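Researcher: Next sequence.
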Amino acid sequence: MKQKSSLKQAETGSRREFLKLGLGGLSLPALYQLQAAQAANAEAPAGNKERTAIILVWCRGGVSHLDTFDPKPEAPSDYRGPYSPIATKTEGLYLSELLPRCAQISDKFTVLRSITHTGGGHPAGSLQVLGGDPDRVDKRKPKLPDWMSVANFLRRDPNKVLPNYVGVNAITNYDSFQIAGPTYLGPGAGPFQIQGDPSKPDFKVPNIGLSDARQSERLAKRISLRQQFDQLRRDLDLEGAMQAMDQFEAQATNLLTSKQAAEAFDLTQEPQHIRDRYGMHQWGQQCLMARRLVEAGVEIITTELSGPLCGRVSNWDDHAVNHHVFDAIKYRAPFFDQAVTALIEDIYARGLDKRVLVIVGGEFGRTPRISYSKSTGGGIGSGSAGTTQPGRDHWPNANSMLFAGGNIQTGQIIGATDAKGEGPIARAVRPHDFLATIYSHLGIDYANTFLPDFSGRPTPIVMHGQAIPELAGRA
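Model: Next structure:
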């Protein structure tokens, strides 16, 4: 499959005209219009009898691989942490004792232990992993679109009620740095964002499902009136722009009024014992929403595990100044272990494992050698200010990720790091290999797909990368 490589000026013009027209308080048509104009320039992936999907569970800040998926019990004392490794269902695979649920279902996932890159800062590391930007320097905003936006751009179906890319606590920023985004693909390729804590009793997704019949009636009247005003403009329309706008408006209206959309985002539709199995906390309910959305037909879902459940600084950035690394990991591990295993188990139990690939990871690992510094503040996972405590710093040389579902062979270990966990000694995997693996699962011809950047220059979505053969779907 070969993707078309340029956007038409006429389409850009029509996008601007549409945004000028607007629809009162209804802003969603603009989102749909932008997406459809872009998707029209790309062919749909060929050969996909059943549409595949990906759920990315993102641990912003970087997970310590030594204290989770790649323990090194024989390493010197200034490297190894206090937690013992435990056996799993996978021969030869040991995980940290903090992850007993993961150990019990290891036959349902594969561990990749040899991801390596050169992005030492959070922005650079995230941009390398999510978008393939080879630059080592942190940037305020991305230069290349992330894989989620690329996939949305290429695969979006304008006939669907639900958005094709949803971020449940979306991957957007690290402090003042933007770590993901559609860049030259335009905002329409970005995610429909769900913010907040889905475990709260008053949680509600805005702009989804008008529950008040009077609101629906007012919306219908407003659309009818607008259509009357537009009749003359439609009669004079030579390029079909009004017909297209009607389509975008209909999609936005469907999202506002569709029972399917309202139910997909409504966690109260789930039996309480299912919600309890995921955990009645933010991460558990985020993962449950991701499962509900993928069942409803959403194909690209990200959910970021950050916030209060991480500890004092609300992320996995376990420098000694931020957290007592071992206290912080011990605090957050039960939430992580419960939410991630419930998601993976459900993917298999509900027959989604052939088409849905679940990926769990962050931008990099943490330094194998333990560092010590004074805490800058007390709180969960951190001693009071001035307390000397252990930490682990940024480590892009080695990282681990989990892969489940996707019709892949599970119960595997891919790659290996050295005895101290400092770097790969087998099957080193780089960001563009990771991206190629994702695109391959989604049916996108990563070797021959080019998209125009801001200057119109065709830009490959993968540079010098190859899909990881061990993570290829089985025939």
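Model: The radius of gyration is 23 Å. The chain has twelve helices and 20 strands.
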